[in-house]
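User: For a benchmark we're assembling, each entry needs the component sequences followed by a predicted structure for the full assembly. Here are entry 17's components. Please fill in the structure.
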Amino acid sequence: EDKVVQSPLSLVVHEGDTVTLNCSYEVTNFRSLLWYKQEKKAPTFLFMLTSSGIEKKSGRLSSILDKKELFSILNITATQTGDSAVYLCAVRLTGANSKLTFGKGITLSVRP
Amino acid sequence: DGGITQSPKYLFRKEGQNVTLSCEQNLNHDAMYWYRQDPGQGLRLIYYSQIVNDFQKGDIAEGYSVSREKKESFPLTVTSAQKNPTAFYLCASSSALTYEQYFGPGTRLTVT
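Assistant: Structure for entry 17:
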């Protein structure tokens, strides 16, 4: 059975801190890994990672994939209260099927 | 404005009643998905459809039904056979080019 495991499940930090969110996976026929941010309602897309070792960056957020060790990390530097959200990791498999398998999500709270 | 709409935002039903959740997209995406989100559970796939008039069961299809008569629309019916229907329901769509899924704002269903 395909599995996506995120850790920690929740964490609380103060503004300005740097956080690292983890996502590991055990799947057959890996194609890509995606990160989403969910504040109140609809998850919004952050990154899609396909190749090992290539960092994707957007402002204070960055992410990297390790296909040998089967995990990805999402880093947020200089956190702000607006970063408080649930961060979801999902994996897509190869083949014509486009469905995603999601982890349980990491709840991040950034205190002022 | 391109996007995915779900209606209604909040829905209340009595046990034993079927209820249909609406999902419409104007992004010209071929694939559409329905997810259920419970606290601490991440997103779990109910049904998905890659083309019109075709759909497949996801991981938790029991007690749900869908149809895909038009490319833009993918309604989900929660039947009385679904044992724990109270949840947050998210609809998503994706194109065959990027496979990145875009989400609607969700419908919160409460059954008492």
